[in-house]
Amino acid sequence: MDFSGSTTYISPILRAAGDEVEEIRAKIGRELRINAGASMLRRLKEDNLEGLPRKNIFAGLKGDFIEYMPLLESIMSGRQLDVYDAAIDSQQKSDIPQVLGTLQRLRDCSLHPRLVNGGKLEPAKDKREIINLFNESHKLSSLISLLDEIKSRQEKCIIFCVNKRLQIFLSITLGNLYKLGPLSIINGDAKAVSKRASTPTRTKMIEEFERKEGFNLIIMSPVAAGVGLTVIGANNVIHFERHWNPAKEAQATDRVYRIGQKKAVNIYLPILHHPEIESFDVNLHKLLTQKTLLKDAVVTSSDVLPCPEGLGSKSFSKEKLLSSEDIPKLSWQEFEAFSVELLSKKFSADSAYLTKSGSDFGADGILMTQKGNILIQAKHIQGKYEGYKAIQEVYAAKPHYDSAIGKAIYKLVFITSASRLTEKTQAIAKAYKVDIYTTKEIGLLLKKYDISFADVMSRLDKKRFNASGYS
């Protein structure tokens, strides 16, 4: 057989209609693999092993070769949409290309907007708080609906995700919601073996997970759980956060799709959509699907790098302005950037900078104005705060910045999201001549000055002030 001939393997793909190309490519790829011989190609389990259960794959996207399930489709709105759009706007306005950083923001935002820029997603215990947190992410809301369905069948499920902050959040929050206790997490930190009987190992966690009758959940990393584990007690897999490499994802699925599995295996792929453009999730899903088809067509897979439609091609004219209600939801990095943006407008700064991380000497931002330079210390805290240490830090930073810049700092500012400060803190601030801005003052400034999510994102991407190397 002439494998190099174009008539059999190339021409049908070239002649195919646009919406039929992938189907024809997959069909020809499988024929080529069979004709070339299994010894020459990577074997697929479903093609070569007997005794495997039925495998059903569902996704929240129409039009590909995976069965569409409406429950897995969600559309971002509210703050999740605002943060997503702001990340794209920031990339477009940035003087320095930040494509990889922007993609990470879009990925994190698609999971939950509070994860963006290293933000915290604190686990919730109260049911009302749990529902509110999940409602901030439409993808997480769809996850609850799916888990409710799996629970109604009294089946077990593995949830795969990469982000460790999300793993911890899901472990505690879902454990509380379904009264299962903290869910086991198998990731890079989970031990394969242990000398102490009290230390949970991967095997022990799986045994405990499978031992429970009926519905149960476990959280896994697709990397750590990719090989060496068998979990046939579960027959449902949710790839909540997709891995860049489809081979890794397939290996993770194989934890339940094995000989000995008695039930049909269900693979769920939740997908978050943008109301106007192709989202990160949609783009990544298409790329992963394409790579899987290319694998079938005997082309070696490579890492995929999604580029959502809005990245570099769409500008959002209606930028969401921040309000007082948005401040508690910012990450600490975002709050520092927000503080610099807000105060730069209040003091009509000629230039404004975030200070370089790790070498800020006690200041998070610096403003350069006609009257002189202003040092800023920012703390993202909720409720009451004993902020005297922060005031001492910005006060101690003044001599260093005086010397580094060669011009005296004329004002010190401490800005915090705390609702109020202790009397001791206020007394120290007065003694050190540090101006204080709390939630109340921030709210008043936001009524006067417009700050958008895009402004915050853009500030985070700009060049930082390095006091160590300033001359």
What do you see in this structure?
- The chain has 471 residues and is α/β, with parallel strands linked by helices.
- It folds into three domains: 35 residues; 247 residues, P-loop containing nucleotide triphosphate hydrolases (Rossmann fold, 3-Layer(aba) Sandwich), CATH 3.40.50.300; 138 residues, Trna Endonuclease, Chain: A, domain 1 (3-Layer(aba) Sandwich), CATH 3.40.1350.10.
- Helix content is 41%, strand content 14%.
- The protein is built from 17 helices and 16 strands.
- The strands form four sheets. It has a seven-stranded parallel β-sheet with strand order 2-1-8-7-4-6-5, sandwiched between helices. The chain has a five-stranded mixed β-sheet with strand order 10-11-12-14-16, with helices on both faces.
- Strand 5, helix 10 and strand 6 form a beta-alpha-beta unit.
- The protein is globular and about 80 Å long.
- The N and C termini lie far apart (72 Å).
